[in-house]
Design a protein that fits this description.
Layout (H helix, E strand, L loop, with lengths): L10 E4 L3 H10 L6 E5 L13 E4 L6 H15 L5 E4 L2 H9 L1 H4 L10 H8 L1 H10 L7 E2 L4 H5 L7 E5 L2 H8 L4 E3 L2 H12 L7 E5 L8 E9 L2 E14 L6 E7 L4 H12 L4 E10 L4 E8 L8 H4 L4 H9 L14 E3 L1 H13 L5 H7 L4 E3 L8 H17 L4
Parallel strand pairs: 1-2, 1-4, 2-3, 14-15
Antiparallel strand pairs: 5-8, 6-7, 6-8, 9-10, 9-12, 10-11, 11-14, 12-13
């Protein structure tokens, strides 16, 4: 491995896609070394803000990946370097392997006894119910026999409790069933990928992405130190999205109370995105899931006045700050996927061209393109066909 200069205090970003690129750009004003590690050919390596890039072992090769991080730290004499995970798999590894990593890194991911309540949605929902936090009506059938006994109002969705075990193969976060025949078929398919104990059947909350909200925060010692709320109006795919393509900041105070109650109960520390769906039937925000890391569109925060990456880095170095406010009506756009999604919605007559163009106006943050740092966008254009094929892009 190559040497990193001035590496006593820096950041190692695990994942060089647009999410890791956003972290690098948000940390750049701090003047610290930014190291990016990724098992593939990532766009973040082309950023002028990435000081060093290393190709790491795939994260499913657990021992090899952890050994890689340790060796990287030893060879570069890291002391106060913060690890930034960008995927659920990376969150899992940092949480489960905190002990061998903490002599070499500052690890912001909480211990497993905390993280598991975000990583496993079955535990998320069980704890939410114990705390009287509304969730969509959800069942956990662990066999075909149990599946047949469910009292369901179709349509429903079948989804995994642990997304990281299902999505890489299925290329979808959920499967909709309109009747028992479809549900049985989807259950058999899911059971061929994941353990039956990880399969959930859930009601469909109507309204689509217009009712999809998130509460994002830096959380420490039972308190919100910085926060932002957003309405995620477009996603890919639009029905049950695996990735947001358009989000806009909003002020929805009722999200904070619910999210804080959950995070405080599990003694959470660090950055998180708590996702909600507004149910028009009973005018209630219902908890969907928790991302225990920087989320895909986190760079919206810096544009709205909340630089989450910088705040976490400083907090890990005992430079604690609190930010009380953020700017509303600031947009985030994932250029490469939002355009085809919007076009598809226009063709389906669910979005008017004028409304789409209006949504692009005003203060905004683009996921990849930057006139100050253009090469990652150029690289992404060349890589787009490969990524769309690999990730199962559909509209």
């Amino acid at each position: 491995m190559g040497q990193v200069t001035n590496s006593k205090r820096g950041a190692v970003i695990i994942g060089g896609d647009f999410q890791g690129l956003g972290i690098a750009r948000n940390l750049a004003p701090m003047g610290i070394p930014i190291i990016m590690v990724d098992p593939g050919f990532c766009i973040g390596r082309f950023s002028r803000f990435t000081d060093k890039h290393f190709r790491c072992p795939p994260l499913d090769r657990v021992e090899a990946f952890i050994d890689f991080l340790v060796k990287l730290a030893i060879e570069n004499r890291f002391e106060k370097v913060v690890l930034f995970p960008t995927t659920d798999r990376a969150v899992y590894l940092l949480s489960r392997y905190r002990v061998p990593l903490t002599p070499y890194y500052l690890v912001p991911t909480p211990p497993w006894e905390t993280t598991r309540y975000a990583y496993d949605k079955k535990l998320t929902y069980q704890l939410a119910q114990a705390l009287d936090i509304p969730i969509p009506k959800t069942f956990f059938p662990e066999s075909f026999k149990e599946l047949r006994t469910l009292d369901l109002d179709f349509p429903v969705i079948l989804k995994p409790a642990i997304t990281a075990n299902f999505f890489p193969i299925a290329k979808r976060k959920a499967l909709q069933a309109n009747n028992f025949v479809e549900l049985h078929r989807h259950y058999a398919y899911a059971a061929s990928i994941i353990d039956q104990s990880e399969i959930m059947v859930q009601e469909v909350i109507q309204g689509g992405p217009r009712n999809l909200y998130s509460f994002c925060s830096l959380f420490r010692n039972g308190e919100v130190k910085a926060k932002m709320m957003a309405n995620r109006l477009r996603q890919h795919p639009m029905d049950f999205g695996s990735a947001t393509t358009f989000a806009v900041t909003c002020h929805t105070p009722e999200l904070e109370e619910v999210a804080t109650r959950f995070l405080k109960k599990i003694n959470y520390y660090g950055l998180s995105e708590v996702e909600f769906m507004f149910d028009e039937k009973d005018n209630t925000f219902k908890l969907l899931e928790i991302n225990a890391r920087t989320w895909g569109w986190h760079s919206l925060g810096a544009k709205a006045g909340i630089n989450f990456s910088s705040l976490l880095f400083r907090d890990m170095h005992d430079e604690s700050l609190e930010v009380d406010s953020f700017e509303g009506d600031v947009k985030w756009i994932r250029e490469l996927t939002d355009v085809p999604i919007a076009l598809s919605e226009v063709l389906k007559k669910r979005l008017r061209v004028g409304d789409y163009l209006k949504s692009l106006k005003g203060k905004k943050e683009l996921a990849v393109y930057s006139s100050r740092d253009p090469l990652p966008f150029v690289a992404e254009l060349f890589l787009a066909p490969h990524h769309w094929y690999k990730r199962g892009f559909r509209i």
